[in-house]
Amino acid sequence: MTGSGLPRSLWAATACAAPPYAEIRNRLPAGSPTSADVVVIGGGYTGLSTALHLALAGRSVILAEAAEPGWGASGRNGGQVIAGLKTPLRELAAIFGDDRACAITVNMGGSADLVFALIERYRMDCQAGRGGWLQAAHGPKPYRDIVLPRYEQWRGLGVAARLLDRDQMAAAIGSSAPAYHGAWHDPRGGVLQPLSYARELARAAIAEGAVIHAQMPVRALRRQGETWQVTTDAGVLRANQVVLATNAYGGVGRAELWPGLARAVIPVTSFQMATQPLPAAFDHILPAGMGVTDSRRLLLYFRRDHTGRLVMGGRSPVEDDPALADALPLQRAIRRLFPELGLPSPEFVWSGKVAITRDRLPHIHMPAEGLWVFQGCNGRGVAMCTMMGRMLADLAAGMAPGEVPFPVTAPDAFPLHGLRRLGVFALSQYYRLLDRLESWGST
């Protein structure tokens, strides 16, 4: 753990300073409001974006975070800004119909634009670079089934996407060993320092009038008449509307705040390592501002940070608190992609939870009047959660669900959720086998 209470990671070591939450709280007048139009529970990207957009809409808002904003997945992810959903338009159309699917796709396709617009508007100190995002195919089949259709979808929607063959992909990432069959490049994407972005979202929300409380775990949530009561260690908050945005960390350190929500997601651990800053001789590797994610089911994702370190992420070999020795699979992946680096020693290793839903889609739920819930980043949180926060703010501010360009649905529980750890392990082994079989044709 770092001195701030954050798990040790590259992001905790290099982030901008957090807003002085304790000082802000102490400066509040005695008897300061314990009620607001909206109480937001959870200080990740979704909750922070919700608070910011509610404040911009003129609503009073209090955000309660159990640790500090960015403590969970928002401060531990790979920092890749990826536009749009993983689910392609044709599959969304089969679920929601053509018109609704098109509205969802176009709206979420603007999520990266929203992130970079907020960064510019508030001059956020989060080391953002907009060099685009690459989705790399680990074999001919994923190139044909995943990469090519997504390229064609976004080209058809007006995005200046590019298709890369094997050699072009290797050149784009600076690899001397073409390890991917090809890729598509999305110019809307980029990278940032994820913990800094969370802290800067908090700073922006505070500047616009939101009240953000760190170190304030929520213990209970109940409706009393027309008002919600949110019980915290510091007292009871009251609001007409509540936004619950704890996502994969909804059960961390507390009982489930609303029945049934925990069964609708499976928290899966993702693992990352960062090297020492690479010497100038390797500046050709992963130009600044570019993020890469491959098409494996147990995917790899990688980028350079603002210090020149190479950051590689993938499926975690352990649940929590990884050791340096756990990075060996990621070191081998680096050697495969960039042979000249060999097996680079990790300077940092860390992990975090990703909330996976049954259909791999994010979800907005309204399980009770005036209660809005977000679940399911599914590994694409930076841009998507920022956009989800804006839509949740619209809903909490009074917009009708049918007017929001995303469906409001009921939670869909995983069957046999209590056996999730065994199921995740078995599925991981099966996915690993499929990924290896599909990779054979790419070498």
Automatic annotation (TrEMBL):
<feature type="domain" description="FAD dependent oxidoreductase">
    <location>
        <begin position="37"/>
        <end position="395"/>
    </location>
</feature>
<dbReference type="GO" id="GO:0016491">
    <property type="term" value="F:oxidoreductase activity"/>
</dbReference>
<dbReference type="GO" id="GO:0005737">
    <property type="term" value="C:cytoplasm"/>
</dbReference>
<keyword id="KW-0560">Oxidoreductase</keyword>
<protein>
    <submittedName>
        <fullName>Glycine/D-amino acid oxidase-like deaminating enzyme</fullName>
    </submittedName>
</protein>
<dbReference type="InterPro" id="IPR006076">
    <property type="entry name" value="FAD-dep_OxRdtase"/>
</dbReference>
<dbReference type="InterPro" id="IPR036188">
    <property type="entry name" value="FAD/NAD-bd_sf"/>
</dbReference>
<dbReference type="Pfam" id="PF01266">
    <property type="entry name" value="DAO"/>
</dbReference>
